[in-house]
Structures are given as structure tokens and as C-alpha cells.
Amino acid sequence: MYLALARKYRPQKFADLIGQASICKTLQNAIAMNKVYPALIFSGMKGVGKTSSARILAKALNCEKGPAIEPCNECQTCLEITEDKSADYMEIDGASNNGVNEVRSLRETVKYKPLKNRFRIVVIDEVHMLSSAAWNALLKTIEEPPEHTIFIMATTDFHKIPGTIVSRCQHFEFKRIPFEVIKQVLKGICQKETIKISDYALYLISRSAEGSLRDAKKILDQAIAISSGDVKDDDVVAILGIIAEETFITLTGFIFSQDRKGIIEQINQLIERGTDLRFFYTEYLRFIRDVIVIKSIPDSERLHNLNPENVAVIRDIVKDVSEVELLRFFNAVKELEQTIRNTEHPSIILEYLFLKLSYFSALVSIEEFLKKLKDSPRPLAVGSPAQRPVPAASTPGADAAPAEQQADEPRAVDIPPAKSMGGEWIAELKGRVEKEKPRMASILGASSLVLRGSTLFIEVAPHFENAWKMIKENKPYLSELAQALAGRDIGLEIVLQDGQAGGAASPRDAGARIVQDLKNDKKIKSLKDKIKGSVIAIERIKGGKDA
Question: Could you report the per-residue pLDDT of 498-546, keeping only the tens digit for each?
């Protein structure tokens, strides 16, 4: 009869145990000091070595050349325990022997001395399945076991063991085995069995085992059987029901080449094959992570989980894509995680996602856009810092502020006389702003737009610093719009008018005083303080009884 790999390559000594070094060291030290606790709990997920450790401990304590920190595996006692033929080594299935009667029978058995060995070892597997009555019957025996008996309780659900039992036992928690370690173990087994298998297939098996070495060996057994010897990648993919890496590569190629028809067809193929689209999304997220590693790190062979044979193809696909673009790409995929998980129509969301990603290559970052503007051979627009009118000092005798500071502070400007010729497009400019930026249109409505020569002056009423700042922030937009509507180079100056009174009051000055009075109105101030806001513009309402 064929011996499964999980049994054939079962650890026979502490040195063979994988991924549990601290537990092995503790048990070996306890054996060497003759301080092995009479009741032990081995907890952890399936397939990490709990029962194997119990057998090794039993052999080490009862070895004819011991007790020793490692069993010899050659004497009759070790061989009997290995082959499960020892009368003094008992393995009990807690799931099927979980009643009080079975525990009472066990309690009577352990009263007597071992028939042959130094210690009677009682291993109760899946001990959390015992009934409450069985636990109560076992409690006293666990607390004060016979001198020649050691209880080892193995469980995958430690939290189900009563606290009264846990307090009387020494607990060892077995860790999940890293998939890299599992991969190396499987590779060694294949070498001993003269089985040809790729590193990618070993990776797939190791990752799918999710930390269980026994499960990994079981999957390898199945892969060997389906492949009739040498293991093929396609067979492993078929066994595990995972998505072939080539699918991710093809889809990514469609995205970067903006082949949107190919994207839709690829997703339709996934649907026709009955692929779990939520699982596909998760796996694609991992794939993009590995692509970023390949792109960003020169020697990344051990840092990604992709088939080495596909790395050259992937590098070619992303050769013209920067690391920043890939990170933006990854972030866009990650943002839809909750949506994909909760939607009733994952196919639609996936189509939307990948179609959206196909437009990313046409996007330009703000930094790149600004750099292109800076490097552009186009001449400076009229009204740029080099061509603006020289500002006058706001206070006579005051020292001139640095150029950068002057550019960001309200200042008086030498304004030439107005010329109305050629300014018919200003009304159209106001209309465009009203459609595209309604908030700023209200500010422009309370300001004065005057064309003087080749420069458009936007004069903001006194004491409206916030409005002045908002228009300043939108200066590039306004400048570009003015030049487009005028059909020629137009400079742009944004002026905050002087609020000091002098001479006869003009209608504009009278309007400024009205605006100032409104800003100082107690009710308006109170409202402004309550909502923590600021007055940006004041407009006259046309129409109605009070027009």
C-alpha cells in the first residue's frame, strides 16, 4: 500500500520538527533536567506538528538509551511508539471518545504502572471536543496524575478548553509555518522522490497550505498523482483552483496598451469559466504588489512571488511605466476593496476598475505638468512678474519689501487711463466665469474690470482682502481665459483699492463706504462669528419690490 508523504516524512526527532524551535528547546531542556510537566497542552492550527511532537517526547522519555533529548529511533521502544504498537503509548481521539464513560475508563487505566516503559504517555487529540461531564471527570486526574503518567492534550481550539484545566497544565502554542519554509521542505521531498517540479509550482502549493505542512504534503501528493510523475504548473493550478498568472499578465498588458475591448473580453472569459471574481480581485492586488517589487528593486528574485519564467514579460510590459504610476495604479485597485467585497455585481465593478486603469497612462502628474510649463518655449504672458507695472510703496518712506513678499501682499499700482477700445470681450469673460466658477463670478460682479492698453485691471473694493486673495489664486485661469477671448496677449493685474477718503466722493467711493458699513454691521458680524466665516463679496439684488 502507498504510504502518503505526510506519513512517510513525518518528523521522528526534535531536530526534524519544522518551525517550532522554541518549543523543541523547552521540551529538551525539561527532559535534560528531569522536569517534564505531568500535563501538557499543545495548541495550534492543523498540520504544524502537535501530535508528532507528542510522539517524539514519548520516545525521548522512554528510549532505552535515555531519557535523552533526542530519541535514538533504533531501540524496540522507539520503534514501537513510531509504529503505534506500544501498550504504554495511547493516542485517543477526543472527538469520538468525548463522553464521561470513556474518561472514567481512561482514569482506571492510568492507575496502573506501565507494562514496559518508564512512563505511560496519554495523548488526547482534539481534546476541546470533550463534554462538560468528561472534563469534570478528568479534572482531578489532570491535577494529580499518577507518578508514571504524562498527559498531552492537543487542540486546534485552545479557547474551548475550560480554564480549570488550563490552570493545571503547561501550555505550548505551535506557530503557523512560513510558506518559504514549507517550500524548502517540499523541495527536499521532491529531490528524494526524484520528482521534477518548478519553483513556481512549489510556491503555489506552499502558499495554498496556509501554514500547514501536512496540507502542503497532501497537495503535493495529489499533484504527483495527477501529473503521473513530474509535476506541471498547469496541473497545480487546476488542483488548487487558482487563477493562472498569465491571466493577470494578459489583462495588465491590455490596460497599459489601452486595449479596452481586450479588457472586457478577458473579464467575460473569467465569468464564463465560473471564476470567483472577488477572489480574482484579491489575487490581482497581490500581483500588482509583485509587479511594483520587480519594477522598483533590481535584485528582487526572493522578494516577489511570481513565476521566474514570466518576469521578463512583465518587465517588458512596465518598461515605460514609472514606479510612481504603479503606486497610483495599486492605490486605485485597493480603493475598491470594500466595494468589490459587498457588491452584488462584481463583474460590473471589475469592468469599471480596469477600464478606469486603462486611462491612467494618459494622466500627467501636477509636478510633470508644471515642469512642462516651465520648460515650454512659449514667451512669457503679458502681466507676468517681468512685465508688471512697478508697484509703488504703500507707505511713504517705508523700506521696499522683497519681491516675493510684494507679490503676495495688497499694493497700490500705477494705473494708466482707461481705453474702452477692444474690451468688448470682457462681458463674455464674465459670462464664462459665471458658468465655470460661480463663486468667483460673484466676486468679479462686485469688482471693476477695466482694460487699459494691453492689461486688464481687476479692481477689488477696499477692505476686501479675502476676495482679492481668491482672485489672485485664480489668476492663471483668468489670464488664460482673457487671452483666449481677446485673441492676443493680455496682461492681468489684480488691485486692492485704497480705502482712504480724499476729495469729493465718487459713486464708486460711495459704494465702497456702503460695503464697509455692511461689513461693520453688528448683525452681519455676529453671523460671521457664529459660522466662523468671512465676507468675500457683497452684491446688489436686482428685481423685486425693493429694487
Answer: 754 433 444 455 556 666 666 677 777 777 777 767 766 666 555 444 4
How far is residue 431's CA from residue 195's CA, in Å, rounded to a whole number?
A: 78
Q: Which contacts of 471-480 are long-range, i.e. CB under 8 A and separated by 24 or more positions?
A: 471/440, 471/443, 471/444, 471/447, 474/437, 474/440, 477/437, 478/429, 478/433, 479/381, 479/383
Q: Give dist(CA 365, CA 525) in Å, integer.
A: 42
Around Cβ 196, how many Cβ atoms within 10 Å?
A: 12
Beta strands in 363-429 (DSSP E): none
Task: Choose among 272, 261, 239, 266: nearest CA to 250.
Answer: 266
CA angle in degrees (0–180, nearest 5) for 162-47-157: 15
**pLDDT below 50 — which residues of the chain?**
378-421, 500-507, 543-547
User: What is the predicted pLDDT for the residue at 424?
Assistant: 77
**pTM of structure:** 0.56
Count of Cβ atoms closer than 10 Å to residue 438 Cβ: 9
Give residue for cell 477572489.
Answer: 279
pLDDT at 441: 80
Residue whose C-alpha is closest to residue 478's, from 419, 429, 546, 422 = 429
82-120 burial code (b ≥16 CB/10 A, e <16): beeebebbbbbebeebbebebbeebeeebeeebeebbbb
> Would strands 120-125 and 455-460 be described as parallel, antiparallel, or unpaired?
unpaired
